Amino acid sequence: MREPRPVRIKMRETIPGFAATLVVLMPLAAGAQISLSTAVDMAEKNSPSVRAAAANVQKATAAWQETKDAYIPNFVMGANPGYVYGYPLGYPSLFEATSQSLLYSSSQRDYIRAAHKGVESATLSLKDTQQQVALDIALDYVELDHDLKEIAALEEENGYAESLVRIEQDRVQAGIDPRISELQAELTAAQIDEKRIHLENDADAMRQKIAHLTGLPATGLTTLSSSIPPAPSVSALENIDAQTAPNSPGVSAAYANAKSKLYTAFGDSRQNYRPLVTFGAQYSLFEKFANYTQYYPSGLQYNNAALGVVVTFPFFDFTRRAKARESAADAAHARADADASLNILSEQTSAMRGSVRELGAQQRMAQVQSELAQEQLKTIETELISGTGTPNAPPVPPTQAQRAHIEERQRFEEVLDANFSLMKVELNLLRVTGQIDGWVRSSLQ
Q: What is the dihedral of CA 335, 338, 343, 349, to 10 degrees?
């Protein structure tokens, strides 16, 4: 019975969020197909690490706004009615309204700059997290696509292996071939079956990973090979070092964080020997009851207001000096961490560039071997039909054609393996250079 046609699920970035949610919640039939770009979009929306990074951006933005809002006067109202026995404690306020704000601080501008750099660092960290999620889902998707293609090739190879076993059984019974030929054919079939089972298990594991990342059910999940963009050429990746530092959001986030720490340290160091000016205003409505009038028989003003500024000069404050040294050490530590991240990234990029060149050569060798096996298969099939063309030459045995088919499929599977190995390194190289998103989105063009 023919299997049902796969159901394709395609979502564009322009689809509203609620519509995308409805598509996700729809039950997927067996053999559901999903494109790479859709899988990446869903993984980024479903990822807890992306949601946490987005929350960090919101927190950093609020902290930045908090440093700027210090110059905006606040307004606080309150009431404290109560009973007084004996001599009044404090002043007889029934209702109060106060307002205060920062007018001048030589450190506040640095704190605002530090908070702004904190927002930049959090935003870059969010981008870095999104790219890591994109890499994770892309690697799983490409591996699942590779497994499915190789399983299909193994199915064909298994058919040739079964034919070879049947032919060898007939030839052994006829006394043409020895028993060892039949056993060798059975061993070949068993090895093909073992490899197929291994790949089926790996494909199921990739489906589970994709399901966990996207929130889709894993059962029957398949790929859309045409949605996988071609990898960049090996020559295009050879001079990629110059693009590494500016395009890596992780390293850029580390340097932005170091800059934020530096601004904070500079602001803390300027708190000593510099004035701090604040604005303050207060209105109080005094009580007309209790026993205040007994102790204040005259001159009790019920409506009272005050307006002014407060200027302070912190000349001698060892606590602030220690805080400034602490902030300077944090800034130096953050800068060292950023430099270390850049060094590690440069080393990884260099190593991956070397791996790309090596795997590119292996891919070419596997491709040539596959083409050679195809030509040998054509030659054998021709000889089976028309003969060898050599007088008195023995005819080509039918087992040779089956072995040629098996070898051709094996060489094709080696090409798939070489392509996948190269693709993994190329995707990691695109990740460290900040180009993984562009590669994924290129499938939409």
A: -160
Task: Yes or no: say if 141 and 41 are a contact pair by the CB < 8 Å rule.
Answer: no
E strand spans, 222-302 = 222-223, 276-286
3-state DSSP of 164-198 = HHHHHHHHHHCCCCCHHHHHHHHHHHHHHHHHHHH
Report pLDDT digits (tens) over 322-381: 999 999 999 999 999 999 999 998 888 888 888 888 998 999 999 999 999 999 988 888
- DSSP letter assigned to residue 236: G
C-alpha dist (Å) from residue 381 to 104, 156, 158, 209, 399: 91, 17, 19, 43, 11
Among 269, 217, 282, 244, smallest CA distance to 29 is for 217
3-state helix, strand, coil in the chain (%, to 5): 65, 10, 25
Lookup: tokens for 87: 């001599």
* Chain-centroid distance, C-alpha 427: 12
- In the chain, where the domains are located: 36-71+106-275+313-436, 72-105+276-312
Level-2 CATH architecture, domain 36-71+106-275+313-436: Up-down Bundle (1.20)
Nearest-10 crossing angle of helices 36-46, 17-25? 100
Query: Could you tell me the two tokens for 113?
Result: 């700059």
pLDDT digits (tens, 9 = 90+) for 284-308: 888 776 667 777 666 677 888 999 9
- Would you give the DSSP letter of residue 11? -
pTM over 0.70: yes
